Amino acid sequence: MVEFPDAAARALAEERRAIAAAAAGSQSAFESLYRRHSGRVYGLCLRLTGHRETAEDCVQETFISAWRSLGRFEARSAFSTWLHRIAVNAVIARRRLRSTALEVATEEAAAPSEPYLTEDTPPLDLEGAIAALPEGARHVLVLVGLYGYSHEEAADALDIAIGTSKAQLHRARQMLAARLDLTVEGS
User: Fold this and answer.
1) Are residue 78 and residue 136 in the same domain, yes or no?
2) Are residues 104 and 23 in the same domain?
């Protein structure tokens, strides 16, 4: 479906009205925002975590946090960008929580985590290859390579140095190329 400028303007105005109503306490307005954005937030969380259940939990945490802090949304960026930032924070918080739990329960650390995709997945499946990347490389690839964040934005969201973001993206691309048996320019 092609969206024309007047349709885009109407959709933006409708979203702003829903944000204002939700900030004033309207659950139905927030529900409409949820319906509009939950799919993209889930996609981001799924790509960052590589696990369906974890992604679903992070989406839930994202929207709970958004509901609680909606009054502080200043509209300096798009609502979707604000939600993505909350989602990245939810994923990072979950990762930190998991790291702490694994330090306490060392027997769990030895158990491999279940990947998002099974071994029945075709070998050239890009989603499976992304899910198999190490966490740091996967996070930067998703944010910079798929969602178009700048290295500065990704570094800020992930609490890493800009140089680390660039190195992780290069690492992710090299690992994907090797996994998918592709050649990468400049290697």
Assistant:
1) no
2) yes
Can you give the CATH number for the domain in which 123 is found?
Answer: 1.10.10.10
Report angle CA 60, 66, 70 to the nearest 5 degrees.
Answer: 160
Say how far residue 139 (Cα) sits from the centre of its chain. 8
Range of the domain at 9: 1-114
Same domain, 67 and 85: yes
Token pair in block for residue 174 = 């090299």
- Asked if pLDDT for residue 8 goes beyond 70, the answer is yes
With beta carbons less than 8 A apart as the criterion, state whether 93 and 49 touch: no
64 in Cβ contact with 87 (< 8 Å): no
Evaluated on CA atoms 59, 180, 138, 33, the torsion sign reads negative
Residue 159 sits in the same domain as residue 78:
no
Give tens-digit pLDDT for 40-53.
Answer: 999 999 988 888 99
End residue of a domain, out of 81, 99, 114: 114
pTM of the model: 0.67
Kindly write down the DSSP assignment for every residue of 1-70, as one continuous string. -PPPHHHHHHHHHHHHHHHHHHHTT-HHHHHHHHHHHHHHHHHHHHHHH--HHHHHHHHHHHHHHHHHHG
CA distance 66 to 64: 5
